[in-house]
Each structure stands twice: as structure tokens, then as C-alpha cells.
Amino acid sequence: MELKIDKSDWVRTRLGDVCTWYQRDIPNAIQEECGIEFYVTANHIDGGEVRFNRYDSLHDGKKGPTITKHFEEGDLLLSTRSVALRKAAIAPVSGVTGEKLLVLRTSLDSDLSPELMPFVFQSDDFWNYAQNSVGGSVNKFTSWTKIREYHFLLPPKDQQAEIAKLLWALEEVRELWLSLRRSIKVMMDVEFAEFTSRGDGEIVELNSLFELTKEKSKSPHSIKRYVGLEHIEPGAFSISSWGSSSSVKGDATILFAGDVGYSKLRPYLDKAFIADFDCVASTEVLNLKPIGVASRTLLQILHSSQFLKFISDKGYGTKMPRVNEKIIGSYKLRLPTDEDALLRRLDCYQNALSEIATSLRSSYDLSSSLTNRLFNHVQ
Fold it and tell me: Which of 95, 176, 190, 281 has the greatest CB tally within 10 Å of its CB?
């Protein structure tokens, strides 16, 4: 049955008339004095989520010097870079962020309720508008000056409350699935640690378990799919989104189905994956061909909490710390004595994660469909 929405009394509204860009700078030297505990970057926000749950401690040693923009719990943080990734979500805590994230909130006496506000930024129509507003030659970005001119249909306040209640109910279902996914990944990591710590398996360096493939693809690329760093989710097991290689004018890393890709940039972000298809990737991605172990075993090593603890402070460089194959390869671990048993257990977890992914997709599709019906294009 098709959902019918009567918009006869909805009002065409300019985003800048109901939302405002909150700008308060807190210098690094006084952030602790001001009670700041956390910071957020675009990497903490997943595309398409309404409320993010990842953030880091101010004192973790990884916060950049330009992260000085204050935000409060309940503010919406919108990434002005890589707009196609659709990163705009509500903050669960207060803290500081960088200038590439806009801090948005409803205006005083706004006709838009704070509860409905984040869903305005979830529609296809808004992101199409934002994508068309980007500028810049290399690192394209949008700005508040541009997106504040976006127009949408705004329902009366009493209808906003009912609509927001429904949309948040759908979001809470999705967050339950996400919480379950996080729990399963923790269990997966614990069991993997048990497999690699017990028994009399040989202790080896990681470089004995992969061969680095340095062959690059030249532009124009014969392989059509392109995987950029923006397409790799932290802790991913495979790639669910990609771009066109026609947009890549320089060299690119070649990955064939079954190869393990690993981002050497900001290693603490945990960006590694198994290529399910032939693709070219950012040159920041290393192609690690497994030797003597299955791709899934190598990937689980790279995702393990032990490896992440080892690699997180090994990056060199100031603004964009990175690692190389030598640093990665120096990690030592005990090989599982029964890899087949390990893979069977990993399969159980992967099957559960696949079921959750299906439920998440259904939940997202339902919410997205309703959001698009509500905030469709205004001529």
C-alpha cells in the first residue's frame, strides 16, 4: 500500500532560515580548562547515519592542532569534504572538531523542531544539492554559504512532532542492529585472540604471511571499479561501495578478487578489507597477497585489537601519519595450530554479520524511503 502524505499546508523553507552555523573556537591551550574531553573528525561519522557513536579522548595523542571548533551534545556535524559520503549526524557528546565539519543547530525560535532537523539532511535531494554545490580544484568541498540556500517543504509544528517520533523509532531499530554488530565483532576478536595465543603454534613476523604487490595501474584504467579511502569502513571485511576508475587520473594500486587491501594512512583507523572483485585503489592502499594463510585469517590479524594496539603509535609524519609494509610486517604473532577450525568459527561470525547487514539494509531502506518522500525536491 502506497503511503499518502498530504503536503497541502507544508511551507517552502530555506535551510538558512531555520538552521544556523554555530561557530565557537576553543584554542588547544585552554580546551582542558574549558572542560573539553572528546574530539571528533569526519572519520568518526559513517555515511548515512543519523547519530554517530564514535569519538576519541582529547588526550589520546592523535588529535590534530587544528581541531578547535566547539560543539555540544545534540548538535549536527556535517562534513564539507567528500560530500558523496553523506556524513551529517547528531553528536552524542560535547567536544571539539575541525574546520572541515560544520556545527549546525536549529535557530532560535526556528520553525523547524530540533527532533526533526537531522532528517532534513538525510534525503537524497539534500545530498544531490550539496554535491552540485561543491567547489575547488583538487579537494572539492561545499560550505554553509552554499547549502544554507537549500529549500525543502516544512510541515506544521504538530506534524513535525509525529513525523520525528516515527523517524526516530526507525533509527532506534537500526541502532539496535548496529549495537549487536559491534558486540559480535568484539566476540570475534576475543575468540581470534584465543586461537592465536594457545597451543604451540609457531611465532612469526607478519611479513612472512603476505607478499606485497607493487604493480600499479596507469590511467586510463582498464579495471572499472575504484576503491578510495572514503569507501573503506573501519573494521570492514569487504567493500560495499566504490567509485568509477575514470575519475582517477594518476597511478592506482591494483587489487584482484581475494587480495587483502590495507590503508597505510592513519593506521589507527583500522581500514583493511578483502577485495571481492577486481578493482583499482588509492595509492595509499597496499595490496597484501596472503602466503600460507587464508585471506580471512590475514584480514582478521589486521583487524585484531592486538595488531591495532601495536600499529596505532607506529605512524610517521605529523599531519597525516602513515605506516609502510616494513612496519606492518614487523608485527609478531603466534600462528593458529588449526586454521581450518579458526575459519569455521570466523564463518559463523561472518554469517551472523551478514544477516545483520541484511537487516540493517532493510531498516535503512525503509527510513530512507520515508525521508525522501517527506523532503522531496521543491521546484
Answer: 281
